[in-house]
Amino acid sequence: GIQVEQSPPDLILQEGANSTLRCNFSDSVNNLQWFHQNPWGQLINLFYIPSGTKQNGRLSATTVATERYSLLYISSSQTTDSGVYFCAVEYRGGGNKLTFGTGTQLKVEL
Amino acid sequence: ETGVTQSPTHLIKTRGQQVTLRCSSQSGHNTVSWYQQALGQGPQFIFQYYREEENGRGNFPPRFSGLQFPNYSSELNVNALELDDSALYLCATRGTGGANTGELFFGEGSRLTVL
Question: What residues of A are in contact with residue B57 (Cβ under 8 Å)?
């Protein structure tokens, strides 16, 4: 099956700092989503981005499908950005499922 | 707010018991899938239902079974519970149209503890 690796695994930021999270995948994908999982377990949709670039407020994401990676940018981080960030992909031949990456645990401090 | 509702939110069972978890979604979302998330790990795909039939399954034993009803609500049943079944169980439905048709939306999950 497909391998989905995220980096860094852990990240600590001061409030106001910017960061870039990376997701590498080992095969062609036809769906890629970024999620933020809050401390209560809720997976919050950030982006549906199988290719291209999208922006939503302080967050933006870019997927370069031909090079098999996606980036999530967080600008002017806030303490409420803390949590785990997952990318998840669907790939041809993988059936009707999302395969999740290893996650990035983000902590934003005052 | 994803429109996906799960119940119960928390429950405790003992080894060997059976459990039923429930999921409901907005009308028209005719695809539902279930995921298991163990502590410290990413969610793992259990199975997916489309129009009341299973159309995809992950690497889970047959004691994990499901149902989808005509109103698109769904159940996940787990028999003969084991300690390793302790996890957060997540239900997801797909968007039904527009540019983001393939996008999945998750409920808040049911946290199962097996003692």
Answer: 95
Query: How many angstroms separate the CA atoms of A65 and A91, rounded?
Result: 11
User: Phi and psi at residue A66, in whole multiples of 5°?
Assistant: -65, -25
Write out the two tokens for A53: 């670039």
Confidence at residue B101, expressed as pLDDT on a 0 to 100 scale = 63
DSSP for A35-65, please give it: EEE-TT--EEEEEE-SSEEEEETTEEEEEEG
In the structure, what pLDDT confidence band is assigned to residue B64 with cuts at 50, 70 and 90? very high
Minimum-distance CB partner of B42 among A95, A97, A102: A102
Q: Interface of chain A against chain B, CB under 8 Å?
A: 30-31, 33, 35, 40-43, 45, 48, 50, 86, 88, 90, 95-103
Whole-angstrom distance, CA of residue A92 vs CA of residue A81: 32
Average of pLDDT values for B23-49?
Answer: 90
In this prediction, residue B31 has a pLDDT band, given cuts at 50, 70 and 90, of confident
Please, are residues B74 and B91 in contact by the beta-carbon 8 Å criterion?
A: yes
- Which of B35, B19, B7, B15 has the alpha carbon at shortest distance from A98? B35
CA proximity to B87, closest of B67, B114, B66: B114
Mean pLDDT over A85-90 rounds to 96
| DSSP secondary structure letter of residue A103 | -
Q: Are A23 and A45 in contact (CB under 8 A)?
A: no
Residue located via tokens 């999530």: A72
Length reported for chain A:
110
pLDDT above 80 for B106: yes
